[in-house]
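stage 2 :: seqdesign
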Protein backbone atom coordinates (compact mmCIF):
# COMPACT_ATOMS: atom_id res chain seq x y z
CA UNK A 1 0.00 0.00 0.00
CA UNK A 2 1.23 3.50 -0.85
CA UNK A 3 -0.37 6.60 0.69
CA UNK A 4 0.21 10.33 0.27
CA UNK A 5 -0.25 12.31 3.48
CA UNK A 6 -0.96 16.02 3.13
CA UNK A 7 -0.49 18.20 6.19
CA UNK A 8 -2.67 21.25 5.67
CA UNK A 9 -1.34 24.80 5.67
CA UNK A 10 2.28 25.50 6.68
CA UNK A 11 4.88 28.24 6.32
CA UNK A 12 3.28 31.62 5.67
CA UNK A 13 -0.17 29.98 6.10
CA UNK A 14 -0.47 28.77 9.72
CA UNK A 15 -4.12 27.80 9.24
CA UNK A 16 -6.43 28.29 12.18
CA UNK A 17 -4.82 29.33 15.43
CA UNK A 18 -5.97 29.72 19.00
CA UNK A 19 -4.08 30.84 22.08
CA UNK A 20 -0.72 30.43 20.33
CA UNK A 21 -1.56 27.02 18.90
CA UNK A 22 -1.30 26.68 15.09
CA UNK A 23 -3.18 24.23 12.91
CA UNK A 24 -0.16 23.76 10.61
CA UNK A 25 1.95 22.58 13.56
CA UNK A 26 -0.69 20.24 15.02
CA UNK A 27 -1.43 18.50 11.71
CA UNK A 28 2.26 18.09 10.86
CA UNK A 29 2.85 16.49 14.27
CA UNK A 30 -0.20 14.22 13.99
CA UNK A 31 0.33 13.17 10.40
CA UNK A 32 4.01 12.45 10.86
CA UNK A 33 3.29 10.33 13.93
CA UNK A 34 0.73 8.30 11.95
CA UNK A 35 3.19 8.03 9.04
CA UNK A 36 5.93 6.73 11.36
CA UNK A 37 3.59 4.10 12.79
CA UNK A 38 2.52 3.01 9.30
CA UNK A 39 6.08 2.80 8.01
CA UNK A 40 6.84 0.53 10.94
CA UNK A 41 4.03 -1.72 9.67
CA UNK A 42 5.46 -1.79 6.14
CA UNK A 43 3.18 0.81 4.54
CA UNK A 44 4.79 3.27 2.12
CA UNK A 45 3.87 6.81 3.12
CA UNK A 46 4.89 9.89 1.14
CA UNK A 47 4.27 13.41 2.44
CA UNK A 48 3.46 16.69 0.71
CA UNK A 49 5.58 18.53 3.28
CA UNK A 50 7.89 17.43 6.08
CA UNK A 51 8.47 20.76 7.81
CA UNK A 52 6.79 24.10 8.35
CA UNK A 53 6.89 25.33 4.76
CA UNK A 54 4.46 27.05 2.43
CA UNK A 55 2.90 24.75 -0.13
CA UNK A 56 0.02 25.76 -2.38
CA UNK A 57 -2.99 23.62 -3.15
CA UNK A 58 -1.82 23.11 -6.75
CA UNK A 59 1.50 21.72 -5.54
CA UNK A 60 -0.26 19.30 -3.23
CA UNK A 61 -2.41 17.98 -6.08
CA UNK A 62 0.57 17.85 -8.44
CA UNK A 63 2.38 15.64 -5.93
CA UNK A 64 -0.60 13.26 -5.91
CA UNK A 65 -0.69 13.07 -9.68
CA UNK A 66 3.08 12.45 -9.93
CA UNK A 67 2.71 8.90 -8.59
CA UNK A 68 0.05 6.25 -8.03
CA UNK A 69 -1.30 6.22 -4.49
CA UNK A 70 -3.90 4.04 -2.85
CA UNK A 71 -5.07 7.09 -0.86
CA UNK A 72 -4.57 10.83 -0.46
CA UNK A 73 -5.20 11.94 3.14
CA UNK A 74 -5.26 15.62 4.10
CA UNK A 75 -4.91 16.40 7.83
CA UNK A 76 -6.54 19.48 9.34
CA UNK A 77 -7.95 20.96 12.55
CA UNK A 78 -11.23 22.79 12.41
CA UNK A 79 -12.12 26.26 13.75
CA UNK A 80 -15.36 28.18 14.13
CA UNK A 81 -15.94 30.54 17.02
CA UNK A 82 -13.83 30.09 20.17
CA UNK A 83 -15.28 27.45 22.48
CA UNK A 84 -18.57 27.24 20.50
CA UNK A 85 -18.07 24.13 18.34
CA UNK A 86 -16.32 20.83 18.94
CA UNK A 87 -15.83 17.42 17.44
CA UNK A 88 -14.24 15.60 14.53
CA UNK A 89 -15.38 15.10 10.97
CA UNK A 90 -13.97 13.55 7.81
CA UNK A 91 -14.78 14.83 4.33
CA UNK A 92 -14.95 13.20 0.91
CA UNK A 93 -15.76 14.65 -2.48
CA UNK A 94 -19.44 14.33 -3.57
CA UNK A 95 -18.54 11.75 -6.25
CA UNK A 96 -15.94 9.96 -4.13
CA UNK A 97 -15.24 6.29 -4.73
CA UNK A 98 -16.51 3.63 -2.37
CA UNK A 99 -12.88 3.16 -1.33
CA UNK A 100 -12.62 6.81 -0.18
CA UNK A 101 -16.01 6.68 1.54
CA UNK A 102 -15.11 3.49 3.40
CA UNK A 103 -11.83 5.00 4.59
CA UNK A 104 -13.62 8.16 5.73
CA UNK A 105 -15.98 6.11 7.89
CA UNK A 106 -13.07 4.17 9.41
CA UNK A 107 -11.09 7.36 10.16
CA UNK A 108 -14.14 9.05 11.68
CA UNK A 109 -14.78 6.04 13.90
CA UNK A 110 -11.16 6.13 15.08
CA UNK A 111 -11.51 9.80 16.05
CA UNK A 112 -14.79 9.15 17.85
CA UNK A 113 -13.19 6.35 19.88
CA UNK A 114 -10.62 8.89 21.10
CA UNK A 115 -13.51 10.88 22.54
CA UNK A 116 -14.21 13.55 19.92
CA UNK A 117 -17.85 14.47 19.38
CA UNK A 118 -19.13 12.81 16.21
CA UNK A 119 -19.79 15.48 13.59
CA UNK A 120 -20.04 12.79 10.92
CA UNK A 121 -18.61 11.94 7.55
CA UNK A 122 -19.50 14.74 5.16
CA UNK A 123 -19.06 15.72 1.54
CA UNK A 124 -17.36 18.92 0.39
CA UNK A 125 -16.01 20.49 -2.76
CA UNK A 126 -12.53 21.12 -1.33
CA UNK A 127 -9.78 21.65 -3.89
CA UNK A 128 -7.66 18.71 -2.78
CA UNK A 129 -10.64 16.36 -2.76
CA UNK A 130 -11.86 17.53 -6.15
CA UNK A 131 -8.53 17.55 -7.99
CA UNK A 132 -6.56 14.58 -6.70
CA UNK A 133 -6.50 11.38 -8.70
CA UNK A 134 -6.23 9.08 -5.67
CA UNK A 135 -9.19 8.21 -3.44
CA UNK A 136 -9.09 11.24 -1.13
CA UNK A 137 -10.28 12.17 2.35
CA UNK A 138 -9.82 15.26 4.50
CA UNK A 139 -9.66 14.81 8.28
CA UNK A 140 -10.70 17.55 10.71
CA UNK A 141 -9.18 16.30 14.00
CA UNK A 142 -11.21 18.42 16.39
CA UNK A 143 -11.56 22.17 16.74
CA UNK A 144 -8.35 24.03 17.47
CA UNK A 145 -10.42 26.83 19.06
CA UNK A 146 -12.04 24.46 21.58
CA UNK A 147 -10.19 23.74 24.83
CA UNK A 148 -11.83 20.32 25.30
CA UNK A 149 -10.85 19.22 21.77
CA UNK A 150 -7.29 20.44 22.33
CA UNK A 151 -7.12 18.53 25.61
CA UNK A 152 -8.26 15.36 23.79
CA UNK A 153 -5.79 16.00 20.98
CA UNK A 154 -2.93 16.28 23.47
CA UNK A 155 -3.88 13.77 26.16
CA UNK A 156 -5.07 11.05 23.76
CA UNK A 157 -2.50 11.77 21.06
CA UNK A 158 -0.94 8.28 21.02
CA UNK A 159 -4.37 6.60 21.10
CA UNK A 160 -5.43 8.79 18.17
CA UNK A 161 -2.26 7.94 16.22
CA UNK A 162 -2.75 4.22 16.77
CA UNK A 163 -6.42 4.39 15.82
CA UNK A 164 -5.81 6.36 12.63
CA UNK A 165 -2.88 4.16 11.65
CA UNK A 166 -5.01 1.07 12.23
CA UNK A 167 -7.36 2.25 9.49
CA UNK A 168 -4.62 1.72 6.92
CA UNK A 169 -2.91 -1.36 8.35
CA UNK A 170 -6.02 -3.42 7.76
CA UNK A 171 -9.02 -1.67 6.24
CA UNK A 172 -11.20 -4.75 6.77
CA UNK A 173 -10.91 -4.40 10.53
CA UNK A 174 -12.29 -1.43 12.43
CA UNK A 175 -9.68 1.21 13.24
CA UNK A 176 -7.72 0.58 16.38
CA UNK A 177 -9.02 -2.96 16.78
CA UNK A 178 -6.53 -4.80 14.59
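stage 2 :: out
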Amino acid sequence: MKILFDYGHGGSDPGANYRGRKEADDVLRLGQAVAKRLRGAGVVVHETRTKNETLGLGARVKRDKADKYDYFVSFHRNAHSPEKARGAEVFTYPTASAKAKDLAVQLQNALIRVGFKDRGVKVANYYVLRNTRSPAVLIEAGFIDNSDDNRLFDEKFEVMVEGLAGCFVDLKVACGKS
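stage 3 :: structure notes
- Strands lie at 2-7, 17-18, 21-22, 44-47, 71-78, 88-92, 118-123, 136-143.
- Confidence is low (pLDDT under 50) at residues 172-178.
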